[in-house]
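Lab meeting prep.
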Amino acid sequence: MLELRLVHRFAGRAGDFALDLALESRGPALGIFGASGSGKTSVLHAIAGLYRPDAGRIAVRDRVVFARGGPGAGEASESVWVAPERRRLALVTQDPLLFPNRSVRGNLAFAPGADARLESASGRQILDVLRIAPLLDRRIGNLSGGERQRVAIGRALLADPSLLLLDEPTSALDAELSRDVLGLLMQVKQTLAVPMIFVTHRVAELLALADDCAVLEAGRVVAQGPPVEVLKRPRALGLASLVGVDNLLRVPVLGHDEGGGVSLLDLGSGVSLAAPLCKVAVGSAALVGFYADEVLICLEKPAGISARNALACEVVAIDRVGHEILVGLGLGDTTLRARITPAAASELALEVGRSVVAHVKTRAIHHLESEAVRTAPTPLPSAPRGA
């Protein structure tokens, strides 16, 4: 879907900022994730053709839209520049950028070829998926923020792009509207099968939409892969403030105990995890996270403890991270991570292969998915071991 090698320096009053990165992704949905100022939007704008990078190569769906040799450009020696309007890419920005003097229909028809496409079967499908048909004769000033974003996405899709580019598609919306738009984007992905690249700093958005994600820091790619895999060690990537967890699990719901206030999650091989009560349907997957600091390691199961989760497991990895020890604990089809001191690791005589018991308080576990993820049309797959 995307091959990217990008070298560019921006000069500004706050100082220089440089992009120097390479990534390839088959998609069909690539999420670009990172803190503010990491270069996410600059990468998206380069793909869209809003500026000419100093050097590099950009190929979208096997079509080269930019190439220029130069320092740091690798082997790129060809010179290619495809104008933005000829790239067949549709960019949706944080601001919907709708024309206030046009109706919804007039805004949708502004996309090249959209006037005729509106009356086609594919056009009607776009209107149905985005729930825009009842709004066609409305004025832009009479639309809510979520409705405006839906119209902007519809206009982009009606241009029949080969790739949809989304810059923080829900950041300007409140929580309820964000869930609504996220749910619609999931339907765009699943029903309309339109490849997309989107920029986000929201974990739920990334995990709901992305098949592949690239993490940016200071203009460079510091990690890439499936979101659950990439984000499972956020502190190592400097993303703890964004992700907020060390253990990130996508696992099926076994059942709900409303009286006890817990939902039971399937870790595989007959092992269950008690988490705070949630609304995810039994059989569908819940996305939960908790800090490695919240996992206590015991050599045997103690009596009279309030923690609901006393999980028999095996030490599968021991890694030193600064002045701390990160212990990998295998149980069922899952690996959990506990963060302890070197002194504790020594006192417990921990070694790979040793049987231990991991304790996790139910209240330490947080549900991370948004309402849109919980009500997705198809269940999310179970996390593999190590997720």
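Slide two material, second protein:
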Amino acid sequence: MPDTTLSDPFEQARAVADAVLYEGYLLYPYRASAAKNQLRWQFGVLVPPAYADDALGEYTWCQTQLLAEPRPGARLHWRLRFLAAQRRTVESDSGDGFRPVPSADVDGVIHLPFDETVEQSADLVLTPADLVGTPDHVHTVDIPGDTTTEQLSPSVRLHRERHPLRAELRLHAELLPGPYGVLRLTATITNLTERKGAFTSVYVEEGHLPNASPEAAQVGGALERPEALRHSLIAAHSVFALTAGNFVSLLDPPEWAKAAVQECRNIRTWPVMLGPEGSREVMLSAPVILYDHPVVAPESPGDMFDALEIDELLVLRTLTLTDEEKRQVRATDPRGEALLGRAETMPPEVFERLHGAIRQLRPAPAAEQADVFGTRTPWWDPGADSSVDPATDTVVIDGTPVGRGSRVRLHPGGRRSDAQDMFLVDRIATVQAVLLDVDGSTHLAVTLDDDPAADLQILQGRFRYFAPEELTVVPDERGDPSVAAGSVTSEERA
């Protein structure tokens, strides 16, 4: 159901939507032999019912709920976008017909089996007012399968196969009580694809291509995710647009809408505003968490398929690949080959922009006037209070003043419950500081005497803290329990 009026708002959102669509499509080092490029696509995957398993986190459906303020005559545009996996195999003619092979070299160019993708979309154009008080609007999406063959040489060819897919789009509208005329829209996407036969399982390891041969596919008989992905909606996300009216931000709603926003239930999706800051006509419901009005950094030279990473770092890593690894990248996927080409030919001025950018410059605030009367000074500043000194202060334990350098025996658990305390009972420690907090409680910072890293912890200021009632004094060699604060150091004991 294409509609030319969709193109403008959806094209404005395309850069961000494409970043979501291809998130995780291919990851560094961009080789098919890398394990993480065999276990692919973790975001927005709606699997077929035969593979769905709540325990494994594999689901057939997702739900978006958002609030809309349509004006009279408004039309709602809902576009579903996703990737459909397309299996690419390399076949060689050995004399008795073409058979799948792990790889083939044609005129110095290596070719490998890999799962490519084809972009898919479905559009719904509805009038929101017509949905209120009526049954859910249900639309079935059928994506046909396809099979193609690309002859590379008389004895080598690439065979591509894409399975048919079926999905259901369901839309429900509810008019919320109140004077604002707000609609709560519930949009559900469900994968209804049926597959005959059982899924198989493969063992994935570095250098092993899944499903390279029928023999490699039969290992455990469990459901295999790579095969299930070929019947899945991958990176599924939705873009909603209103021709007349606005959506309500779910991240920063107005005060009157906060209660209604809290009642929205978004399951495996995250709706945010799209378009320029302040606009409210378009929303993206993505399988990753974004902020309102997300944008792709203008410095980014192209898709690295990992928006959570830093482009500069990925480009530098890509340039460190060996010639053989680059050869495998080019054989893996055309998008990987294009990424490698951008990295190798990137002009210095473009690469420099990847190092960082300054945005939203603001004038520096004027210097504050001196606080003559001390009204902005905190009521207690331990750094300025000469009456306290952790290095020389003491606390009385069993009638003995204990301070820095005193040796104590630990009896933890008086004020807290910590499973680690069982390892500290009756251990001997040395007090490093006596601390007083703003509530008037005293704490002793100690290091364990039998800890070989005690001196390092003292240098780093990393201590264990105990209350006075959790400690008893250990007499020195002369049997004198009193030790002057600061009179014994860890170096002297050593």
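Talking points for slide two:
The chain has a mean pLDDT of 83.
The CA atoms of residues 160 and 202 lie 20 Å apart.
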